[in-house]
Amino acid sequence: MTPKIALYGLPGAGKSTLAHLLVEEATSRGWNSSVVKIAEPLYDIQRYVYERAGLPLQDAYQQDGMLLNVLGENLKRINPNALIDDIAQRVADLDLDHIPICDDMRGDAAPKLANLGFTLVQVTAPDQLRRQRKQKRADLTAGDDKHVTEVPVSRDPDYQIVNDGDLDKLRAQASYLIERVAR
Which contacts of 127-134 are long-range, i.e. CB under 8 A and separated by 24 or more positions? Predict the structure, then answer.
C-alpha cells in the first residue's frame, strides 16, 4: 500500500514547509509525491470570488483567511463531507505509487483521513516563533485560529515533528519520516 501523509498543527507551525521537504525527500529516493490540500475546493472558490471582484490573486494559494473560514463553514453546512470526499477522489485518481502529502488537515478530518490510510503527523513550533511566522506570511487577511473550521485534532498523532526554526533539523526529520512511513 502506498503511504499517505497528513500534516496538522497551528498556523505558522511549518506544515507547508515540512510538506515540501517531504516531497523533496521522496523525490530524492525516486518516488513520486506531491502536496494535496483538503481545502483545494475552497482555494478554487476564493480565486473565483477575487476574479469576480476584479482583483485576481497573484498566487493560487494566497490566503484570505477570513474568506476561507466563511467558505469552509458554509461548504460544511451544505455538505459536511464535501472536502473529504473531494480529497479522497483526488488521492484515488493518483498513480498507485504516488505519495500524497496533505499539509492542511483539520481536526474533523483526522478520523476520515486515517480511514483512507493517511499517517497523521502533528507539527508543532514554539509559540513565539509560530506567531512570528504567521505575521510574515502574505495573507490577505488572517483567519481566526478559534473559528469553527479550525477544530483541534482529538486523536494522538502517529508522529510528531517539532519545528524550532532550524531548517536542517526539519529536513532531517522529513527524511526520517518519509523513510518510516514508506516502509
Answer: 129/12, 129/164, 129/165, 130/10, 130/11, 130/12, 130/13, 131/12, 132/12, 133/12, 133/14, 134/11, 134/12
